Amino acid sequence: YQQARERYAGTASADQALIYVAQTYLALGRPLSATAVLSPSLGQLDQPMRHQAMFLQGEALRGAGSYLLAVPFYQAYRQGGTELEDLVAERLGWCYRALGLHELAAEEFTRAASAYRPLSDQVWLLAEAADDLRRQGDYAQAAARYERILSLARISWYRASILYRLGETAQEAGQPQQAQAHWQEILASYPDSAAAAWAADALQAAQAPLDAYQAAQAYRAAGRHGEALPWLQQALAEGLVPDDPGRYALADSLAALGDLEGALAELDILRQGEPDDPEPLLEQGRLLGGAGSIARALETYEGVAQQFAGSSAAGEALWRAGQLLEQQEHRGEAAETYRRLLQSQPEHPRAGEARFRAGLLYYQGLRFEEAASLWSGAAGADESRLALWQGLALRKLGRLDEAEAAWQAAAEGQGYYADRARELLAGGLQFGRFQGRPTLEGGGEAEERAREWLSQHWGRPISSTLPQAVLDDPQFQRAQELCQLGLPDEAGQPWSLLIERFRYDGPALYALGSYLRGQHFPAHAARAGDQLGKLLPAGEHPAETWLLRLRYPSAYAHLIVPEAQANGVDPLLLFSLVRRESYFDRYATSWADARGLTQVIPSTGEWIAERLGWAPFRLEDLYRPMVSLPFGAWYLGEQLDTFEGQALPALAAYNGGPGNALRWAEDEVPVGDLDLFVERVDFSETRGYIQGIYQDYWVYRRLYGE
Question: Angle at which helices 85-98 and 67-79 pack, to 10 degrees?
Fold first, then answer.
């Protein structure tokens, strides 16, 4: 860009290069460099470059902590006309807050809470405005903002937190009765929220009346059982709550505090009052098992199974007993307990899983004949899983023709187990072992077929040209402006809202998907494809291949393929991992702060950077594909090396941690039975992760590997 500025000095190209230089410095976290480039040139730029430069100068000065200097540049950008008034207002709000100008900050945050923003953003910005008004001492206006939030918000825990702040505001305004009314409302309406415990604390501090059972519920929900206990006892003594649920709650809190015998005694009171009710016994079994009193828990469950034989509670007791026995590695006893459930109550909600667990325990105990017999004749949602495992057991018995027939039945379904059956029928291990170079080019014929078929399907011509309704939509214009300002991460929000707005318009979704893919927004192109798929008939059709290429993109192939090959990773496996981790959104951030395309957490990123000698390294670099993809490919390659090329345990290690993966492998490397390994994964997230990547992989293999 610097070379372009010098070569084309005095032209519009040089001005555009200047904008790109400033944007690049901002992206690198170097705001002082950005303002140093912009400051001498602002007066010399022609429109529209000067308009963009005003915003960038505001960003650079705010990033450098020069909030007072940033304000006039943001104001100039707003005065020059923009579709992003709300985003400019938000930035001005942060500047004014940093300067201690809380009234102005509140005004800008309120202005930022426009209808163009998602509802979650609107309520968040209104809450920021209310906070500044409280700092300013304008409690009436702060309360008005909180009331407006309550008119918009629908999520219970969030409404409770706003009610709590509303109570604080009333207290600060010298209106204690109004404050207490808000806190009482939390206890009455949202007793299980975190704010309920805060409200109980506040009411006690104010020496206000407090419903004993509501206080107990609040403290229990917060895990503060020691404080809940006296309130529960008071509520029961005063008859404020019936024995059921009061004594259940009391027993649970006593157990949480380590008083197991006290908890059991409370449940005994319930048993004596309702001898025909199995629930107190089931709860005693649960508490005993949780406390490690396995023998007593099993005895309790056996009592339920016999006393209430044939009932749903008896089936639940057998299921829980089987789970406990399995956890204690009493596999034979666990299997027989599951079979008792299956035989006595074949229609019980737990019966299907009991069938599978019993068979799996027989399989692990080398009782393949019994496992195959138990898994035979499966039907319903679990059919593919049971048929796959029946085939695996039959293979162990040397009955290969029967095994193949079982896998054929499994392969007729959908999902992980059906895909695994198809791999077994194809012969050998193929998952994660593609040897060739992916065929990423082409796709033009598939797109032409899709366009012709979709035109016939909807009865009007289909084009990749965006319809005027999309071009005129404010969200499209907002996204375009954000991209021009070098903020593609913030453009994701209006793209998502645009897709949602046109979710029932197939031709518009087709054009949006094509456009977004061409503009290097693969995640949003894929989401447009997902919405488009919901409007089309199920099953195969002439548009399927094009649609799958949109939903399973080959974006960043110029980085993914060489990095995968350099680290001994199947490129199609890395594509599948990126899709599952981030859906090809380079700015993705998880609840655990995992970042970027391959969702590397900061501590792991720093460790990988050190191992690879990648310096200098900033955590923000994880959002850069040229960093995230090499890091993810290297880390996956390390796990593949650990497990001698086996992709399933390597993926489990990538998601659930290497130590856990070795535990699930029972320290056997290479893993002898990969199907058994998957079933041993006891983190539901990790099992879903590896099964999801497995399914995605075969779509990638079909699209780009054949």
Answer: 160
| End-to-end CA, the chain | 41
Give the C-alpha distances (Å, rounded to integers) separating 88 from 54, 61, 81, 98: 11, 14, 11, 16
DSSP labels for 222-266?
Answer: TT-HHHHHHHHHHHHHTTSS-HHHHHHHHHHHHHHTT-HHHHHHH
Is the pTM of the predicted complex or chain greater than 0.70?
yes
CA distance 216 to 236: 11
What angle separates helix 119-136 from helix 139-152, to the nearest 10 degrees? 170
Angle at 549 between CA 544 and CA 551, to 5 degrees: 90
Following DSSP, what letter does each residue of 31-63 receive, concatenated? HHHHHHHHGGGGGGPPTTHHHHHHHHHHHHHHH
Q: What are the DSSP E strand ranges found in 313-457? A: none
In the chain, the percentage of residues whose pLDDT exceeds 90 is 94
pLDDT value, residue 505: 96
Does residue 468 carry a pLDDT above 80?
yes
* Per-residue model confidence as pLDDT tens digits over 259-280: 999 999 999 999 999 999 999 9
pLDDT band at 428 (very low <50, low <70, confident <90, very high): low
- DSSP category for residue 466: P
Instruction: Calculate the dihedral angle through the C-alpha atoms of 116, 122, 124, 130, rounding to the nearest 10 degrees.
Output: 130
**Residue 595's beta-bridge partner residues?**
589, 600
pLDDT at site 382: 82
Q: What CA–CA distances, in Å, run from 498 to 84, 473, 493, 696?
A: 15, 8, 9, 26
Q: What is the DSSP string of 632-670?
A: HHHHHHHHHHHTTT-HHHHHHHHHH-HHHHHHHTTT-SS
Question: For position 427, what pLDDT does the model report?
Answer: 86
The average confidence (pLDDT) of the chain is 95
d(CA 172, CA 202): 13
Distance CA 144, CA 179 (A): 14
Other CB atoms within 10 A of residue 528 CB: 29
In this structure, what token pair is assigned to residue 414? 């959908």
